Known about the structure:
Elements: E1 2-8, E2 16-26, E3 33-34, E4 45-50, E5 53-55, E6 58-60, E7 78-80, E8 87-91, E9 98-101, E10 115-118, H1 127-134, E11 150-153, E12 156-159, E13 167-168, E14 176-177, E15 184-185, H2 193-201, E16 208-209, E17 215-216, E18 219-220
Parallel strand pairs: 2-4
Antiparallel strand pairs: 1-2, 2-3, 4-8, 5-7, 6-9, 8-11, 9-10, 11-12, 13-16, 14-15, 17-18
Amino acid sequence: MRFSTLLPLLPLAARTVFADTIAIDVGEGGLKFSPNNPTAKVGDQLVFTFYPLAHSVTQSSFAAPCAPLAGGINSGFVPVSSGTGGTFTVTVNNTDPIWLYCAQTKATHCQAGMVMAVNAPSSGNTLDAYTAASMKTSNSTIGPSVSGGVLALNGTSSSGGNSSSTTTGGAGPSPTASSSSGSSSGSSSGSTSSAAAAALATGGMEWAVLGGAAVLGGLLV
C-alpha cells in the first residue's frame, strides 16, 4: 500500500517534494515480508509493521545474507503477542538496493526465506538470488542496536543513527519458537550492556527508547 505524504527538504531548500509511504508487513501470515520487493525513490519512507511473535528488520549485504551490515538498518527484535506490535520507519536516502532479513534464530527465519529487497535489480543480483543464498547460510545474527530508522513501540519511539539522546533497553532471553508457524516470541528484562550484547548474539531482544519527538535524516518524526 502506498500513499503520499509531504516531506520538507533541507531547511535551506525553497521547494517541497512528494514522497511515498510504503507499508510493509513483517511476519503477517507466516515467515515473510509483504511486499518483499518494493521500488522506492529518494525520500520515500518504508514503514514496517510487526506481527507475532518476534521478528526483526535487519540489513545485510547481498554477498553475506543473514549477517548484519556494519552501520546498516536494524530494528532489533520486536516482540508481539497478538495483533501488531509497533512500527519501524526507514527513510530512503538513495536508490541503491537494500537487502533485508529477519534475524530470528528460532525456526531460522532468514534460512527459511524471510528476506526482502528494496530496489532490487531485475537481473544479476536479484531478490530470488538473495533468497537462495540466504537459505544456504548456517545461522543468523543481528546488529548490536537500533539503527537506520525510527522504532515506535507502545507509545514511545527510538531512533538509530544520529540521535544522541537515545537510551537503550536491556536485552532479554532468546524468544521461543511457535510450533504452528515457525514464528517466535520474546520478552525483555533489564541487563547490563555486556549481557545485552551476549543475548543479542543468541537471538535476544534490544530496543532503544527516546522520549518525545525523534529526528531522522533532519526530519522531525
